[in-house]
Amino acid sequence: MSHISKIELVIQSLEDLKEACRQLGFEFMENQKTYKWYGRWVGDTPLPEGVKIEDIGKCDHAIRVPGCTYEVGIIRRGDHYILLWDYYSEGGLVQKIGLNAGILKQAYTVARVRKEARQKGYRIRVKKIDQGVRLVLSV
Amino acid sequence: MKEIVIDISSDGEIRIETKGFKGKACLEESEFLKNLLGKETYKQLTPAYYNTNKKKVKKYLQLCG
Questions:
Q1: pTM of the full predicted structure?
Q2: Contact A6/B41, CB-based, under 8 Å?
Q3: Considering the domain boundaries, does residue B62 fall inside one?
Q4: Interface contact A32, partner B, CB < 8 A
Q5: Which is nearest to A12 in space by CA: A59, A73, A76, A56?
Q6: How confident is the model at residue A75 (pLDDT cuts 50, 70, 90)?
Q7: Which of A25, A108, B10, B63 is the most buried (most CB within 10 A)?
């Protein structure tokens, strides 16, 4: 063993986010400027950093998830993207994209690493583990 | 065998572990993943990190004479 790191995901690639949506059966809505949510801010959770109340519901692209009435908004922030979505149970998103959009972020990470690692000539194995997914890159 | 293991939990947490590397090679080899995925929030070097291929030089004290 040599070292262990923990990474906080920053979404930088729209192409890999599209691939994640394809893998999960979600629909990527290119240039959709609003996303569906409860429609009124009730103040029950803190707003994400840099997001104002008037920003909620607006986006650069959106993700439509089958079986959900609400959608995920994709907002460009300089060289990266953030996801905004309403996790009120009526919208159905938590069950499909996971707490903190973890399932979507997981699929994005797999898509992103797979593509880049393949280009760099690594051998890639993907397996399910109890807590999620494991990618093993062999040199 | 040299491997980079990436665990992605269902809540989106990413953990990278390098195996079989000696010295700083592990950091260099996994650097592209950190740039690809985001910000490193935690790093722990393991004993193998300090293990390089340099020969150890043993020094002895002359005890008599």
A1: 0.86
A2: yes
A3: no
A4: no
A5: A76
A6: very high
A7: A108
